[in-house]
Amino acid sequence: MRPKFELLDPELIGRILNEAFLVLEKHGAKVGDSEALELLRAAGAKADHGTAFVPRTLVEKCLRSVPKEFFLYDRGGNAAVHYGGDHVHFDPGSSCLNILDAQTEQPRPASSADLIRLVQVTEGMPEYAAQSTAMVCNDIPAEMGDWYRLLLVLWYSAKPIVTGAFSARTLRIMLELLATDSGGFDRLRQRPRAVFDVCPSPPLNWSEFASRNLIELARNGVPAEMIPMPLAGATAPVTLAGAIVQHAAESLAGITIHQLAKPGSPLVWGGAPAIFDMSTGNTPMGAIETAMLNIGCAQVGKFLGLPTHGYLVASDGRQIDAQAGAESATSAVLGALAGINMISGAGMLDFLACHSIEKLVIDAEAIASAQRLLAGVRGRAGSLAFETLERAGSAANFLQLAETRTLFREEQHFPSAVTDRSGDSGAPGVLSRARARVDELVSAYEPTDIPGHVRQALANIAELALKGSGIVQLPGIEFAQPAV
Amino acid sequence: MSPEMISAMRQSIVEGAPERAAELAREALRNGIAPLDAIDAGYVPGMTEVGDQFAKRKMFLPDMLASAEAMKAAMDVLTPELERHGGQRPRAGTVVLGTTKGDIHEIGKTLVGTLLVANGFEVHDLGVDVSSDKFAAKVREVQADVLGISALLTTTMQGQKSVIETLSREGLRSKVKVIVGGAPVTRRWADEIGADGYGKDAVSAVELVKELVK
Question: Is residue A482's pLDDT more than 60?
Fold first, then answer.
């Protein structure tokens, strides 16, 4: 059996969903985009001063048209991420402003060079099924920050990508970049490479941009990952169950808008819910209650048969220390056991404000352990131990048995050198081991095999989008011009 | 004022009981107690204790908000009487608050505002999604001592820099202390954009403002 962790019993899930439907019908949700409101109204919702009151029957109808599963594809066109069921994948956390400098161990503003390094490291680690547009690059003007970092990830990676747009205009550029990479909009629809995070504002507000985003993504057939982020006690009820209700109501409102725009478009029941720390006013991502919220919210999505996402494997300290290890590993294991399809957050410190590439490789160790845990204890056919004991005989020669040699690779996971099992009293500390691993992965990185004309087309889109911005050189984008 | 009365006033703030605080204020006025005495001897020590308990993690933000609410209830009763006698509670300072353009998150800033009011500051809260020009205009209008700019998002944090630039352009920068806060904000960022201070949370922001207006 596959080990599994559930937090909510069916009765509580039923109550949560009943209340979420009630919230949408009676309390309503704000919807900023006029077309989204019109779609809702035309389908039978009441709309008053930008607030939509959505009847349960309409939400349930829209839920029926959401695909239960879909795939993200790598650059080679292979299905690499399976959204749906209990499939579990991890990707680095996204959109932080700072990076923990590997040498000074202090946070500093992230740049495109840092993002490229992170992408190269992630590319070499099988623990991460997808890349993310992980940082806001300080050397790129804010108004082009979202599409430019997607360009960088496309340039340096072949993996699927978890991304997100900052505005309706830049979403268009991002879709063009992806379509160019995939070989056209039809091909992008058939084999999407990326999923877009779309965030409602708590409580219950699908802003003009967020609701517009849902409509555009639905119509382009590019998967949307809804990221409600109720903060329990500050922008949502303080109880975990109450915050999960609000998360569900926000998600259901998003699903309704999205499916009305284009029934059958792929969508993820995601989120980044957190508690609000009553002593500091911070939102601790490493808190066990934050993990419980993410797992509870995902469980509601799974109950509805939807693909899921959560925000885990992050820590709130500012350094790579025991706290970072404990918080990140705990939530990695719990999220994996909960069967969340995409778990974002690895590498993150300081309430999601700071990325660390060294932490990313340390987190990969916890993720690998979680993945081993998911594989479970195999009850093999025939004798489990009796025959082995007989064969080993009185000399206890287990090490020399043929079956030991055949089976040990399946039974045991072998961590990288980041995990110290050397028994050597002079072994370097974890940060040194992580630094060495990062260097090793960067050295082993091989440029993505992208045809020259595709690189040229991507660069052309970038140059066109940059017209008038005063930027002439594309940071991080260098390639030999294809021979004419 | 009797020691019992002083203790009851203090207690009403610590417990965060607005009705009780207001009732005691009315009783004090009926007994001819000077409003300023009631404030300084009865209610303010309550708020001070709440701050101490908060620092020790014995009390938390919801407790503190309730105490601020109780403080406001008492002040609502006492202020008209204070003004009728031509006096006023010495104002600790004038603060303008708001969240940067494009940012609609207000918890942090509202919390800071509530605590500043409880600590005797005059607070002008401009709300969320505030343009640089609007910040500058308000600073000029109320001759603010301190301007607090909040941002929750890494993207809208850049707006804090724009506000400071606007203040400089308008010739206001030297007249007002600027503090910044919000989840992604760091001391380093505050230094980089030329802010006068940074508060990592609501309570430290209040301490910072007190320090800056000294």
Answer: no
Within an 8 Å CB–CB cutoff, is residue A201 touching chain B? yes
**SS3 (DSSP) at A445:** coil
Is the Cβ pair B54, A282 closer than 8 Å? no
Report which of A21, A88, A85 is spatially closest to residue A305, judged by C-alpha positions: A85
Closest to B62 (Cβ–Cβ): which among A98, A136, A278? A278
Q: Answer whether B107 sits within 8 Å of A234, measured CB to CB.
A: yes
Q: Which is nearest to A177 in space by CA: A285, A330, A98, A75? A: A75
Please state the separation of Cα A14 from the chain's center in Å.
27
At residue B84, what is the residue type? R
User: What ipTM was reported for this prediction?
Assistant: 0.85
Q: Is the pLDDT of residue A483 over 70?
A: no
Q: How far apart are CA B211 and CA B214, in angstroms?
A: 5
Contact present, B201 and B173 (Cβ < 8 Å): no
- From the list A199, A198, A157, A200, the residue with the least C-alpha distance to A178 is A157
B57-72 confidence digits (pLDDT tens)? 999 989 988 999 999 9
Q: What is the mean pLDDT of residues B92-96?
A: 93
SS3 A56: helix
Q: Could you tell me if A112 and A137 are in contact, meaning their C-beta atoms sit under 8 angstroms apart? A: yes
pLDDT tens-digit readout, B141-191: 999 999 999 987 777 888 999 999 999 999 999 999 999 998 778 888 899
HSE toward the beta carbon, residue A203, CA cutoff 13 A: 20
What residue ranges in chain B does DSSP mark as E strands?
94-99, 122-125, 146-150, 177-181, 197-198
